[in-house]
Batch of 3 targets.
Target 1
Amino acid sequence: MSDKKSDMGVTDVAFHNGHRERLRQKFLDGNLADYELLELLLSFVIPRRDVRPLARGMMKQFGGLYPIITAPIEKLMEYRGIGRNTAIFIKSIHKIMLAGYKCELAQQQVFHNERGLLNYCLLLLGGKTREESHVLYLGQDYRLLSDDLHSVGTNDWAAIYPREILKRALELNAVAVLMVHNHPTPNTTFSTDDIKITTVVRDLLAAVDIQLLDHYVVSGGIVYSARNMFLLN
């Protein structure tokens, strides 16, 4: 009986090792499904367990890779089977992606890489449970000088201080500004108050020849643009 159990253990190890090697090869071939990509990631931090059920369960509960990556670390740790180290590992992937996009925005004009700019905003604010307001300051060549966390508020409000934005823009010698904030409630676009404060900031900056290029709202995996919605006219 013990020999049989031992043989089954060897078989299980061989199966898991073979399966993970197949996952790695599928990754190199560019053929991984999203849940398999998550499974591959989890296999590096949970090496002694079959993580396929865990990956599939997370994909079902969170709704995809993006919601998993951007979820707060506390939310990840609430999921059965995800410990502190695994949650930190997942969030480190998030931070690496965010840093990569930020580096790109500092190296080329932001609207030469608008997809990268929108992805940066999504990664920056997606999954947040409280509203955050960020201000991106751009230099003479419209490259990113600084992304400042302007304020953190509640689940439906974050303060914006126009004079502080102007002061910081002058300090950095910025020629343009982008405002970004999130709405934790999915699929909610600009509120009346959002539009009013955007207009105030636009006019205050324009008085010293600094342009407010846009104001973005991140909500439910969507980036809403004030300019595209003709709210800056």
Note: The CA atoms of residues 166 and 208 lie 9 Å apart.
Target 2
Amino acid sequence: MSRRTIRYLIAAGACILAMGFLLAGCGGGGDESGQDAAEETASVQTEATNAENTEAADPTLLYMGHASLRIVTGEGKVIYIDPFAGDGYDLPADLILETHGHDDHTAQDLIKDRSGDCRVITWKEALADGSFDLGYVTVEATQAGNNPNHSIDECVGYILTFSNGRSVYVSGDTSTTDQMAELADKHIDYALFCCDGVYNMDLEEAAKCAETVQAKHNIPYHIVPADDPDHFDRERAEQFAAPNKMILEPGEEITIQ
């Protein structure tokens, strides 16, 4: 329920209450009518208040460096994607996503704490099942891969859609895929494109992919190979010539809204 609808319900409740008071002042059963109106108003206002209190908060996304991300949903669920680089693994995991089997995407040992029902989805499950509805997030696998470094049969990207309706596309290690032409119809809010130019597509190709996907915000990541100790190169990131470019440095956090 939108905030506009909630405000409308509250205003409508106030009108009903006023009518109830007016009827209560008239003879011939006015007290009963007024009481019914007051009860209806209270019900409407309670429903509106409950809806407003349960409206989903906005998730946050922490870029930890290289291809490593941490997302905390509006419900407080913690999602790690391709653990490997940076800091921020202190929160207990509810979901761990891996795009493929290379060491710089699968360092699960960095995640010391996990919730009792923590779910791990690797590229294997993603390729087999395609999509997952976990309540607090839906996860959809997307095509990823390039030759000779990443087989399309052993890699995925992910689209995550949250309770607030916002979505994040994580390309995984890839070059241009056939499916990217279809992603514009999904109206993605934030898209992250790998662009190291050694094991994956370079900056120019990544920018063309961003033009194809048409996300509202385009973020370069996996900017350098995994053996770079900084896991980031600001100068290269600035050269990412995608529309609606957004640069995140390791340790920087944004709100997904």
Note: Residues 60-255 form a domain with the Metallo-beta-lactamase; Chain A fold (CATH 3.60.15.10).
Target 3
Amino acid sequence: MCNLYSLTKGQQAIRDFVRASRDTTGNLPPLPGIFPDAMAPVVFTNQDGQRELTMMRWGMPGPPQFGGAPITNIRNTASPHWKRWLGPASRCLVPATSFCEWEDTKPRKTPTWFALSDERPLFAFAGIWTTWTGTRGTKAEPVTGEHRLYGFLTTDANTIVKPIHPKAMPVILTTPEEMDVWMNAPWKEAASLQRPLADNTLTIVARGHRQDS
């Protein structure tokens, strides 16, 4: 599963790419390593019908029958637990410049970074989000209250990702048209985007580090 990604482009470039008309993230620094439970920029449709770039916490509420632990990657969209968040109001775009999968090497697994090219152009994960009340964060620094939480969809790995992580890869959107479908279309149409990215559109850009600077 993808439990690490980066976002290193400038704030204006991110707003332009996702076509956000409102930005409540504040002064956004480069984020070369975004881990589960971290705060990161996410685009959702606000109550005014505008695309808003805001900070959310990575990890959706998990199924209660499995303890409710946070889930970063969502594969089984047929599950009743996830169906409630598949409508346009709960969909979001998660901007990124690269993502990491862990190659099963010895003695330690090797972080391997994938991007659209060496220049790391922006793309978006197809995400879902919700509000949730409770305690998140670390034991040393717990954060209690209402949280905006997000996760993103995964799918079969393509031939570039499969040698490193055979089971899955994130659902990646690269064009305005794909992002529009994800944010606005009925689920039957939006579900067609839960597919591997074409093999010739991904490349390995770095290995061995837990950040992609």
Note: The mean pLDDT is 96.
